[in-house]
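Class, discuss our next protein.
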Amino acid sequence: MKNIELLYPEYCNIYGESYSIEYLSRCSSDINVIRTNNRETPAFVDRDVDMIYLGCSPERKQEHIISLLMPYKDRIRELIDKGTLFLITGNAIEIFGESITDGDRVIPALGIFDFTATRYMNRERHNSQYIGTFVNDEGEEMTMLGHRSQFSFAYGDFSHKKWLDISIGIGMNPDTKDEGIHYNNFFATYSLGPCLIMNPPFAKYLLRKLGLDDTLLFEKEAMEAYEYRKAELIRTLG
């Protein structure tokens, strides 16, 4: 049985993020989902889990989530270094950087990765979609589709730990095509929502990384929707 810890779903599900893990669990009877709320000690603290997921939250909850995870930042770093799977989506990526600037305030983050984030709450929310690619550790070039809706951007040198090369859309900020963080089995992106449903090839890849059969629930329909969405993005934005 593979244990996936879903952190703080009461905060981190504003775009349906938790359904990525719901979908993955429905693809295999050998997946157990641990739903950890903000009043509980995370399971990963005192035992190994196979995968950890953290999704997008309202900006006002980010600081609280950082405070919940800060006592365990060394354990998080240890798990990342030993190759535990992490999937981090939306503004949750900022929690793993050095800090988040909001006007005159600088909010210390976990400091796992060397980048900062800045909120622009006085501007309109940025909304866009992207197509990006990466070569996984099986040697396969994989195309990822994403969409973003955010007030903040991240800044730093992402060239050595980026996840995706963006061909359509923007990366971690409007001035870069580098998107996300990829280090060992840590995957993080600004993309929102149930990204595994939107990216069935990557869902299959994660199942293989977990040592499970990679057959997806409604795989034919999921792949057809993925190919259609990719073609539409290329047609309308390419």
Q: What stands out?
A: The chain has a mean pLDDT of 96. The chain has six helices and 14 strands. Helices lie at 18-27, 59-69, 73-82, 195-198, 200-209, 219-237.
